[in-house]
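OP here, attaching both records as promised.
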Amino acid sequence: MATIGNSELDIHPLALGGNTLGWTADETASFEILDAFMAAGGNFVDTADSYSAFVPGNSGGESETILGNWKAARGIGSEMMVATKVAHHPDFRGLAPENVAAAADASLKRLQSDHIDLYFAHSDDPETPLDETVAAFDALVRSGKVRYVGLSNYSPARVAEWLAIADEGGYARPVSLQPHYNLVHRAEYEQEYAPLVAEHDLGVLPYYGLAAGFLTGKYRTSEDLDAGVRGRMASQYFSEAGLTVIDALAEIATAHAVEIPTVALSWLSQRPGIVAPIASASRIEQLPALLDSTRLVLTDLETDRLTSLSNAVEA
């Protein structure tokens, strides 16, 4: 187990992404994935109130609803911790105090829970004074509806500003940061966020740990990228340098008798400050490769090779 920042949240070193629940995984498939994740020792799911409003026919909250139904059906309580987010639901956009409060209540209803373990501001809201947003999250902590606060998609300057406001006002401090970080998208986090993480003891739960599927190795040609929405998302990482990283991942995976995503997530989980990468599955068959990353220890030579090759991706 790994602890998120200075919180009391001790979690499995892989966080299950809830973005597929109600999107590429229907409720039956989602229940299978969640069952298998918990059976393997998983105890932390990351979702958002807006998942998956971007899918035609969905209205937002589908992931939370499925997760709540699963916990109720299985009689599961606090042993499976949940992180969710506010700001992007079609009915609860932004971070005005009244919106944050209403969105949290809506999430709790869908999750069939009396509390949220880790509540993220999904992205910055420049239309709302930051001190009002900080106070709104603090009010949720004081009420018992939220245990801890996290930040996602905030600039380093705004993260620092949030922390300063919290300290000056005696408000609940964020304990976690959720940045875009993976083997082929490193510079922004390592250069701009890592110093903040170290200074303020923030627990990092990186999203896009598999680069929207690119680091699974399934996208080797431009034609591969045309296969559905996931391929289009992965296209932002597609390059000659990126494919060289995939080749190295494949060689290392073969040496360890594991799959490519196992190696990619293992590299990420061993980076400084990382508590648990977030990775999602659409089918139960995809889950073992994700979980195996928590047991794979790369050699220094393997780690250095991947790091060196990935330097060229953003050069």
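Record two, same layout:
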Amino acid sequence: MSTEEVAAVLRSKRGARGLHIDAEKIRDLERGRRVRGWAWGSPETLGRVARMLAQVYRIPDRVVMDAWRRSRTEDPLPLLPVRRARQPSGKSLDAWSSLNDRQRTYLTCIFQQDQETEEEQRHARHLGAERRPANEWRRMTLALSASSDAVGYTRIQERLRDAGVHDPGAGSSVAALERRGLIFVYRDRVYVDGLGDLPRTRVEMTRPGRAVVRTALGVPREMGPPAPLLSLWLWKIVVRVAGAGTQGVDGSLAGRGPHYLAVGQSPDGRSPSRGFIVLRHPDGVTHGPYRWFLTDSGQRHIADHLDAYRSLYPGIGTEGVGESSG
């Protein structure tokens, strides 16, 4: 897109009112020059512009924010507008109201197991495990057609028993949830040592099913930290590298963290990594093992957001991190 095209699209957005955006302002913004117009000095205004640019370029907010802080170090820190929380869906509330107590218990236990399994998959990916398709791990075993003395209880059945439901879990309640489009039900057979092929019932939450439970129980959708902050997992890595100072961290950083944090392309293949750490020799050393160090962008990110991280992740010790990153 030319700067004229970008300016034209931005002018059409409601958030651009009063900014008098033109191609010259876009060129000044991109080249690190002062942008004329007193309103552009406000952190709130800069945050509005950053959000609109991300929308125009169809990239995450954090990509614009990272580039902004690399190229416009003298600007105030842009404050991105807070996204409005979605209001509970009346349709979801109606669907929950149509269920009886037993059906609600089944749906809630299946949802809880779905969320636990999702967290397990996320943790495994962080440790470097191969990504599994969601249509595999979201299909969870509900019941095996055999005596519990022989096969025990599935994880969903354990949840149901804790909630006071002790039937096998593959009957009318599950069928009712499937009819309403809240879960998918799969029936197949699985081989169990000593017992042979056994009929198996598996279930999978649908998106409407998750929405119903979230709305009914007031469970917020996991949105992650606000842009441009890092997840807890990535922040731990940055703190570790920052704390190592001039010694750096050896190449043993586990999992995919460096792919998200180092200079280069992130694993999604669509957007750049954060560029906060780099693998290099220590200062004054020309050979031997490489070590991880903070980049200037990484140091600036810590300086910009250290207070926010301490509030968001109070359990992560950051004593001296700001000083060592200055």
